[in-house]
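Data card: per-record layout.
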Amino acid sequence: MLKNKEKTTEKIYSLAIETAVEAGSLALYRDGEPVDGLVGAGVVSRSADALSEIKKILEKNGAAANQIKSISVSSGPGSFTGIRIGAATAQGLCRALGCDLSARSVLKAMILRAFTEADENRFENENQNVYGCKILTAIPFGKSGICLQKFLIGGDRQIIHAHKPETPLREDFADSLKNADCERIIMHESLYRELSESRQSGDFDRVKILNAGYNLAFLIGGKQLQDANQKGNREQKISPIYVRNAELQK
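The structure for this 250-residue chain is written out next.
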């Protein structure tokens, strides 16, 4: 009887890996709820270091590798090297552990921040509904660029249309946002802080700006968003999203 009881109460863990943006990040989920995260350069320098950081976060939370049942990883855009490190790490772990693998665009994953914000304020403002609205997400890209993408959200939290990613220079970021046809803008915390320090009052009154934080892995591992065009990934294949900007190559 004890063995059966232990079996039914065993914790199920999932891991999210984001190595394409800045210092990279990890997130650990237990029974579907986020329990811990990590942001740091050690996540993205090479696969061996990423594995070392994963081991640390598991040990810190009393979890064993064989308790991981699923792994989510960012497919980009962002650092080419970081994308490859994340994919290789996730695929290697999934093969070794026999767990499920899913990959998601980090720009798509950031839309989850709009849903959490709307859920938190649903009783305060009827206009918090994000269904049918246009959302723009943005991350730092290279040393002097930004990568951003616009999405249209339909019912059941589905992405019904996605524009192609754009890569303006960082110095043109504020102007790009002013001209954006959207109701919400969600950005990495480094951009959010930069914009907060530099923008003039009233520049973005018609748009709600949200901070996605530094740890984007928490959003990569989120399950509340559905892409109407996304199919299941059962063969542990990852299609990397590589975005280039000719201006950044000069």
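Known properties of this structure: Residues 80-97 form the longest helix (18 residues). Residues 228-232 have pLDDT under 50 and may be disordered.

See the next section for split statistics.
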